[in-house]
Amino acid sequence: MGRSGVLLAAALAGGMALSACGSGSDGGSADGGVAVSLITKNSTNPFFVTMQEGAKKAATAEGVKLTVAAGKEDGDEAGQVQAIEDAIARGDEGILITPNGPGVNPAIKKARDAGLYVIALDTPPDPADTVDITFATDNFKAGELIGKWTAGQLAGKPATIALLDLFNDKVVSVDYNRDQGFLTGMGIATGDKKKNGDEAKTGSYSGGSYTIACNEPTNGAEDGGRTAMENCLSRNPAINVVYTINEPAAVGAHKALQAAAKAQGVLIVSVDGGCDGVRQVAGGVIGATSQQYPVKMAELGVQAIKKIANDGQKPEVSAGLDFFDTGVALVTDKASTGVESITSADGAQRCWG
Hints:
By secondary structure, the protein is α/β, with parallel strands linked by helices. The protein is 37% helix and 20% strand. The protein is built from ten helices and 14 strands. The chain has helices spanning 46-62, 77-90, 105-113, 139-154, 173-186, 222-235, 247-259, 275-282, 294-311, 344-350; strands at 17-21, 35-40, 65-70, 94-97, 117-121, 133-136, 159-165, 202-204, 209-217, 241-244, 267-272, 288-291, 324-325, 329-332. The strands form two sheets. It has a seven-stranded mixed beta sheet, with helices on both faces. A seven-stranded mixed beta sheet has the order 8-9-7-10-11-12-14, sandwiched between helices. Strand 4 (94-97), helix 3 and strand 5 form a beta-alpha-beta unit. Helix 1 (46-62) packs parallel to helix 9, helix 4 (139-154) runs parallel beside helix 5 and helix 6 (222-235) packs across helix 7 (247-259). The radius of gyration is 20 Å and the shape is elongated. 58% of the residues are buried.
């Protein structure tokens, strides 16, 4: 892993869950130890639960004092801002954060101005230099992999596509990168690189013709995925391809398709590669998913803040990117020609490690 950075964190507002791991959560100044806050989008999504567990293990191994906080739900910027304020007040050396949106950016600047080193995990902020560095999946590549897989599976058949995104009321890089990566992998031209939904609604993909039936928000949740899929089916019951922002949304979409007796022959693709998601691939619910590695993100984040606090060693971004790439692998049991992938059995051994 390379190294580069600066110092950062952030500011104000509402409700979250807090817990401490290690010798305490009173900041680094109390006993000379390094104190770090991990602030995830929520504490219910298995992805973030796993990230929290990985950070706690890394903190124990590194002798770092870790405080865990989370927004009440995806998109809860106010809760994350309050957690940043708390980290500043404690005198933490650094913050690891999966940003819920641009509303946390001023708080991150406040933290950096206060001397904290801030690392984004999973979700690069916009602009990228809002934080010192990001450890994340290449979300565009993750989307591109499932797009290429889908085009290969269709084998020239017309594609009627439902795009089940994260939000429709805020712009988050993970949202547009996965969506547009998927479309690019399908061979569909996109418009504004930081905006979902402005591509041509009909045209040609790499194997045949396509129609985009809908762009619907899911908030990254199962119930959101189900509602979004229901809305899409009401507009076009002929949908045969469903892109989903993550696996909880994919499960919700599948349930809506089942309830409408439309599940047969529909390709559902997603991003995450958690252990449950891999089981959904093995069970045929999800055709393919791009596996990411939140435990690695958390471990690298904890280690990086300890190093910067102890000896000034700063992490560097991956070559050609504005973040450090923690890797991605396509998980499927139905390989598409020319698209590198691993099986669900392999994915189960690696899931989120």
